[in-house]
């Protein structure tokens, strides 16, 4: 009888721990061998083993904020995971015509883009840094720059299931053997994956990010072109442990707190928006992240001490709110769904979240919000995010958000029924 395999809800927990690898689910990782680490803090050991265990092979790295994202250049997303030469020709010709008079190096306007001319790749690279959808894919020689890009932004609010629960449980780092690709026969440029290192870097981003690009032949994905080169080099592409010497995907557990801790550590290494994007955009993004951290820190400083459990319990047993806030305490109480949540929660933090929910209901939702699942899911997502920013028990966040929204819906429903009854009388 075949063994029954129980699949973990969080995808990355199905994967082996580094350095073991497996092709577990091709719909998520493609044909790339995948692995996981238990924390972003373990990434340093991965980097050390890559440097020490692969005979000096040089790797490049790419960070993804969502674990389901494939290795797709932006132009791929207009097609079906591979770029036709017709689509690429049209795109680059349009770009070449549209930048006349806006670029100093006129030789780039005359290059033959579709014979893999070096100047054509330079033009693609210029477009890449100015928002053009291209066949290039960004990589970095620095593993920690890629770790930054994996955790750069908070999760998108749409990354939830139909009940409003978060679905992006891990972020990912791709590791690619640059040396193998660079050593390919130059006469096979049109057959295999290429490394592109532009000579021009007008904005300084490539230098600061230790950046370069890959370029797959038209009609191929990065994976298919790399596997073709490996097979031609007599590498056993059916053995994940062999393929992982050339490409692999590392899943890293994701949560709001993990993200903040990781970015704080990278900031100590001078890896942040302002250093990676040496322009006004980089400065703005850097300040935005500092603002997010300020809000979390300020909330913590103005709350009661974390360790005083007795004080917190006394608050919930005997605290009386002002009359105009009489609806907040039942909402705040609803968040205390477990002993762990009660032990670490600070009353002021929970009242702040309850007040936020009331403000949302009064200003941003319709009068029948409690009867619409889309609004309930939207509010659960907001509450979960707020709970992730305070010192709340991580394992209780989803349950607490559901309980709070259910309590708010119950109160709103009762008020609506009362209003209707009064109108009828």
Give a verbal description of the structure:
- This protein has about 425 residues and is an alpha+beta fold.
- It has two domains: about 10-270, no CATH class; about 310-425, no CATH class.
- Helices cover about 45% and strands about 10% of the residues.
- A four-stranded mixed beta sheet has the order 1-7-4-2.
- Helix 5 (about 145-150) packs antiparallel against helix 10 (about 255-270) and helix 14 (about 330-335) packs across helix 16 (about 345-365).
- It is globular and about 75 Å long.
- The chain starts with about 25 loop residues before the first helix and ends with a helix.
Task: Supply the key terms.
18 helices, FRG domain protein, four-stranded mixed sheet, 2 domains, T1RH-like_C, 425 residues, alpha+beta, three-stranded antiparallel sheet, 7 strands, FRG-dom
Annotation, overall tally of beta strands: 7
Structural class of the secondary elements?
Answer: alpha+beta
How much beta, percentage-wise? Answer: 5-15%
Main-sheet strand order equals: 1-7-4-2
Structure in a nutshell:
It holds the Pfam family T1RH-like_C. The protein is an alpha+beta fold and 425 residues long.
Summarize the topology.
Blueprint lengths: L25 H4 L4 E3 L6 H11 L5 E6 L20 H14 L19 H11 L7 E5 L2 H9 L18 E8 H5 L11 E3 L8 H4 L2 E5 L6 H11 L7 H4 L3 E7 L2 H13 L4 H4 L3 H22 L7 H10 L9 H7 L4 H6 L2 H18 L8 H17 L7 H28 L1
Parallel strand pairs: 1-7
Antiparallel strand pairs: 2-4, 3-6, 4-7, 5-6
């Amino acid at each position: 009888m075949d063994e029954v395999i129980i699949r973990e809800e969080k995808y990355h927990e199905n994967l082996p721990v580094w350095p073991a690898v497996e092709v577990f689910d091709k719909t998520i990782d493609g044909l790339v061998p995948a692995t996981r680490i238990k924390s972003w803090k373990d990434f340093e050991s991965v980097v050390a083993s890559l440097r020490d265990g692969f005979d000096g092979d040089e790797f490049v790295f790419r960070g993804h904020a969502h674990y389901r994202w494939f290795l797709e250049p932006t132009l791929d997303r207009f097609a079906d995971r591979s770029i036709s030469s017709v689509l690429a020709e049209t795109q680059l010709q349009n770009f070449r015509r549209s930048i006349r008079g806006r670029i100093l190096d006129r030789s780039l306007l005359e290059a033959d883009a579709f014979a893999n001319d070096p100047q054509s790749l330079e033009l693609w690279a210029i477009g890449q840094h100015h928002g053009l959808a291209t066949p290039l894919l960004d990589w970095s020689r620095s593993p920690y720059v890629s770790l930054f890009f994996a955790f750069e932004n908070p999760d998108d609010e749409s990354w939830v299931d139909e009940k409003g629960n978060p679905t992006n449980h891990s972020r990912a780092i791709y590791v690619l053997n640059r040396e193998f690709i660079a050593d390919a026969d130059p006469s096979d440029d049109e057959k295999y994956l290429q490394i592109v290192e532009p000579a021009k870097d007008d904005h300084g981003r490539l230098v600061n990010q230790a950046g370069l690009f890959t370029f797959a032949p038209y009609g191929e994905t990065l994976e298919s072109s790399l596997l073709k080169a490996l097979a031609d080099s007599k590498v056993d592409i059916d053995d994940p442990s062999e393929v992982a010497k050339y490409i692999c995907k590392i899943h890293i557990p994701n949560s709001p707190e993990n993200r903040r801790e990781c970015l704080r550590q990278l900031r100590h290494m001078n890896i942040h928006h302002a250093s990676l994007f040496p322009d006004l955009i980089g400065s703005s993004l850097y300040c935005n992240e500092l603002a997010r951290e300020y809000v979390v820190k300020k909330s913590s400083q103005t709350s009661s001490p974390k360790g005083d459990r007795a004080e917190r319990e006394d608050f919930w047993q005997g605290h009386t709110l002002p009359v105009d806030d009489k609806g907040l305490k039942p909402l705040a109480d609803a968040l205390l769904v477990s002993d762990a949540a009660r032990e670490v929660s600070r009353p002021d933090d929970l009242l702040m979240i309850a007040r936020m929910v009331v403000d949302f209901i009064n200003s941003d939702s319709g009068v029948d919000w409690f009867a619409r699942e889309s609004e309930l899911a939207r509010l659960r997502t907001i509450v979960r995010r707020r709970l992730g920013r305070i010192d709340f028990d991580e394992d209780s966040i989803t349950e607490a958000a559901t309980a709070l929204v259910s309590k708010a819906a119950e109160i709103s429903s009762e008020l609506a029924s009362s209003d209707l009854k009064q109108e009828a009388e």
